Amino acid sequence: MKHPAPNKILILDYGSQFTQLIARRIRELGFYSYVLPGTSSIQRIEDFGAKAVILSGGPASVYEAGSPKPAPELWTYLDSKNLPVLGICYGMQLMVEHHGGRIKAADKREYGRMGVAVEHPCALFSGIRNFQAWMSHGDETSKLPNGFHLTARSAEGAVAAIAHEKKPLFGIQFHPEVTHTEKGAEILRNFLTGASGLKADWEMRSLIDTLVEKIKTEVPADAEVICALSGGVDSTVAATLVHRALGKRLHCIFVDTGLLRFEEGNRVMALFTEKLHLPVTRINAETRFLGKLAGVSDPERKRKIIGAEFIAVFDDAAKDLERTLGTKPSFLVQGTLYPDVIESSPAPSSGSAGATAHHSHTIKSHHNVGGLPEDLQFKLIEPFRDLFKDEVRGIGRELGVPSDFLERHPFPGPGLAVRILGEVTREAADTLRHADEIYIEMLKSEGLYSKIWQAMAILLPIKTVGVQGDGRTHKQVIALRAVTSSDGMTADFYPFDLGFLGRVSNRICNEVRGVNRVTYDITSKPPATIEWE
Length: 533
Fold this sequence. Notes:
Elements: E1 8-13, H1 19-28, E2 32-37, H2 42-48, E3 52-55, H3 74-81, E4 85-88, H4 90-98, E5 102-118, E6 130-143, E7 148-154, E8 159-164, E9 169-172, H5 184-195, H6 204-218, E10 225-229, H7 233-246, E11 250-256, H8 264-275, E12 280-284, H9 286-293, H10 299-325, E13 331-333, H11 338-344, E14 379-381, H12 389-399, H13 403-406, H14 426-445, E15 454-468, E16 471-484, E17 492-493, H15 498-511, E18 515-520
Parallel strand pairs: 1-2, 1-3, 3-4, 4-9, 10-11, 10-13, 11-12, 13-14, 16-18
Antiparallel strand pairs: 5-6, 5-7, 7-8, 8-9, 15-16, 16-17
């Protein structure tokens, strides 16, 4: 994609669980950031045209065989351009090793919050002295490379930060991108505006113009485009953006899979037609989807089945449009986000944000990423593939999408299929829909909804003994989940007052037929994901 900001920051990924947080924090500071695999070729790195480079952390040890290493020419290229470089954790260790220093296994692993003392001033720590930082490493610098000096030390006495005496090279052994690090944002800002001398130039309005022009350029003037509307924020904003670029050549298809939330179909159709004025065709495909999912319990199979069936439905719709228009739509719009791509870890492809997945593991396949068939009959338009959820919300506000819709909690593409643990049936979907509606309704009525990133009810594949109406029951269990997050990459469970949970449980058990027990999930991400499947 043509990047809208000249002061672009490149992040080379070596497998850290926090790499996407680095990208997010850099964007929050007003700079366009992009992640490429740490092993990317020099040509690919040069084509990006970065004004500064960050080397991420990672789980490997630089002295082990097979550990990820940058292209052999990387440091020569960086020196020739005099590019500022910040190495974080493993990234710092790569810097130390390349320049002749030594890394060894630490006698004592540093993990969690730890004090850091700045011993020698440098641009990275301008205005900063002592602070608490988040550590997560088992190796340490035992010998500084020539030309570098120590700038900060941990409370345990280990090297916490280094800087080159003449070149704009900096290394830190802690993670400034996580919220647990005090002064983390300030340290990153110091690197970008102080050490690198760059000016923040990342703005949402210029991004919209860039995306619109990109769509106009990539879609031929005689091509028709079909859009997969799920009813969620991402696909809705994507459709609104593409509609601005292409007008009547966009044809939206809203598929009611039978796996949507309570009254979802009617609610979103009213939004599409009455407020956003999008050209939408509604397809009721509940029987079709439930038939394909019959007997399937494995979550990955569910996602792939749903992804393939979505494409099949759109292919059928495209054929209908071909008969009407005289030409078959050749492009498919999807609301794929950056976290979707990262979690699905698709095979790297040139210019794709999915290429960041070299040193990470597949967490789950998203129906619009990992579930796509190899013989896809459409060329994809994914304008938000490099963006985070809150950035898409920002675009939506600029495009006039109602704020109450934009602030809705995320909803998975496969819908309730991945919130029904076990086989998906119409009865199970109806049960879960009812319970979820009660939960969300109470969050809103008690002023809690806007404080939570995502909340949901999950139908568990077990039954428990209960007492209802003076009789013994053997019915199903609903689990409730609610998390706070800034971008969905990490999340903490929301600490509800027990009285609220009691009121929700009471209503669900009294009003939802077939349920006699409610539980609350108090697991954060990591180790868990936000969704259960």
